[in-house]
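#random but structural
TW: two for the price of one
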Amino acid sequence: MLLGSIEAGGTKFVCSVGTEQFEVKHSSTFPTTTPQKTLKQAIDFFKSFDVVAIGIGSFGPIDIIRESKTYGYVMSTPKPYWSDVDMIGLLKKELNVPMYFTTDVNASAYGELIANENQGSQSLVYFTIGTGIGAAAIQQGQFIGGISHAEMGHQFVKRHPKDLEFKGICPFHGDCLEGVASGPSLKARTGISGENISLDLEVWDIQAYYIAQAAISATLTLAPSKIIFGGGVMAQEHMIARVRTHFKALLNDYVMTPPLEDYLQLTSIADNGSATLGNFALALKELRYKGHL
């Protein structure tokens, strides 16, 4: 039995086929261009394999409410050409298999849940800190959400005393979390891409200050077993230590957490493999939901 995964990112699509043991057998990566061209490439990839279900983790915002008239749509996204696109409808016209549709960060969070299940964890929060910021929360094995999926990347944060003049880059909110802590905010402040910024510049510490606040909000609101960070910004080796330092100082021992080396972690799987694993597992879940297993 083969399962499918689509990591529908704003920059690229990663399509994969794997076994029910979640082992990747084939994969293809291509740029995210227009919906017609990009989805045709995805369809052509899967037509070469006898997949029984596909898990899709997409950039958003998207409509994941099954009863909604626009279920399966990409909604009002800043990504050119993709607003109001019926992604699931277009895929199902050519690929008549069950599909589980969720956000890219939900898929990554679910993959991390699977990767950490030997530790008995059924609750976690996952943040991706990169070009944008997204987050997902899982409690007792289920995604948190009601009217829609979570958008914790756009929560508001207390400004760093040395960052008060920076207006933020979010086109909707200015200085929300994404506006002050995403990768592009580094270049907006310094004129330098993140990978070229010296580690001794204070901007890294400012960014970690905001990310730590997001982790504290998740802790106080959801009390997860752990908080996991992915994305290009957190791939910088020095960042997780900075975030832990600010987290400890800002929380000020108000509530007990596990040791921060265990509680605030980086992803378990390299190269965003968490999303692929999560999509495979969600495809299997969709098969059970549809009564095929």
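TW: number two ↓
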Amino acid sequence: MPRMDQTRTAALPFMKMHGLGNDFVVIDARGRTVEIVPALAIAVADRHRGVGFDQMAVISETENADAHLTFYNADGSTAGACGNATRCIARHLMDQTGKGQLTLTTERGTLYAKDAGDRLTSVNMGHPQLAWDEIPLAEEMDTLELPIEGGPTATGMGNPHCTFFVPDAEAVPLEQFGPRYENQPLYPQRTNVQVASLLGPDHLRMRVWERGVGLTLASGSSSCATAVAAARRGLTGRKVRIDLDGGTLWIDWAEDGVWMTGATAHVFDGMLTADWLAAL
């Protein structure tokens, strides 16, 4: 686990990245000792007094892969998976090393990334978790259609998801709808909430409320969960295009896992100053 002593006086470098507007602060902890405590994550997430992010990601060394990734939400909680951050970091590491394929470890497990051409990056997010106790849910039930209003589908992608299929995703007041279901009692660890509508064959419009974050312009793991849910319900095939508020992802639920492909951006490099860190 990355460690950082908050009494340190040295400044801390970071990178700002985004995948379709889903934005991240990335700290490269390889070769240094960094501890990310909830108070630090919350402070950096503040878009007025800190830097601002949907998730923070920490890159650390591991003997079994090219790098290990740890993710934090804006409320200081941890996330087992973050698809868009994984793609952003994979692109950074591929540019840095010249490799066209990478192996990355996360709390979710071992993930594989590859250059998809045209500056697009693909990550295999692993096999979806479809059993109630893997997602997890509070009690045994059919995960295809939960016994709550709207009959959403539950899916695990290293973090829990609740996907509602609606006639028009843009018409749903997600600012009110999202928090209501993020804290639904069926999800003991809270859940990410998606609303999705079918635009055409294998083409979905999706919006997302992320647990511990709120409204985001995109979410990779949510897109994977929505694609899996749509295929399970017979709405689409296993390869779909998903249009999010921030852009488009292509999802392929293949035999070896759920592949996600899309664009990334490394926006700027910055420094958390010693004075700012000392004031936390």
